[in-house]
Amino acid sequence: MLYRRLGSSDLEVSEIALGSWLTFGVGVAADRARAVVEESFRLGINFIDTANVYGRGAAEEFLGEVLKGRPRDSYVLATKVYFPMSAIDRGLSRTQIEKQIDASLRRLRTDHVDLYQCHRYDEATPLEETMAALADAVRAGKTRYIGFSEWPAERIRAALEIPGVEKFVSSQPQYSLLWREPEKEVIPLCAANGISQIVWSPLAQGVLTGKYRPGAPPPPGSRATSEEMGGFIDWLLRDRTLEAVQRLRPLAAEAGLSLAQFALAWVLREPNVASAIVGASRPEQLAENAAASGARVDPALFARAEAIAAEARGE
Prior knowledge:
eight-stranded parallel barrel, 36% helix, TIM Barrel, globular, alpha/beta, two-stranded antiparallel ribbon, single chain, 11 helices, 14% strand
């Protein structure tokens, strides 16, 4: 496993990160989820990403339990705030940030997280209020650094211009061969300002593993068949997309990689990406994905893959 510096921070994070969206505390049985966490450490993964809203606290509760016996400096822990935790608790107001970070720390059984992220932008709260509250959380020692997820470029710029507050060190966008929107504005802006990308859905909800075949039903036990986990994948299951993914197989084989490893290596080719977040319901999935770290691929193969993916997107 290789490691990269997270933005302008002093955090060194594994190129593959362990995510917990739709898995821990919700979609995966506790014994299997525990085995996945154990495997992540065996593989050298030191970066764990979660959020208060995942299972309405269940993912954080699970991680607090499974991590409690490990030295706190042996892993980098990130969580998030924004989405509703109750009928009245949501957003990025000072009140919510103070309330939600304390609740996350209790569930995670720790006195600090390494990275506290705004899960989305809050149009209902002045940006200055949000940034001041985040700065106070850093100064209180509750988080070491701050980041954001899926903020538009103009909001990132505005945050960078506010004096006297902590600066973001990370951005968490959706990014994959099938979704390249961050390349237009977010990645260049972040690269110029000491902000790294922590990529979510680098395997496009599992579609870039090649397990979904055009014209065929989803395989039993896959995310697309799960009531808890399948609600976010429909847009990726069009036959045109699935056919394009199958055309990537020979390129991955030529690189000596599985299709999933090839897709992760493509994401990691971008210097501004510090880590690619993967979810796993079984330890063996994680082992395959971790092997993408450090993979060397001929740029010409990536160029051919990009052309195929562009056709799938109708470009």
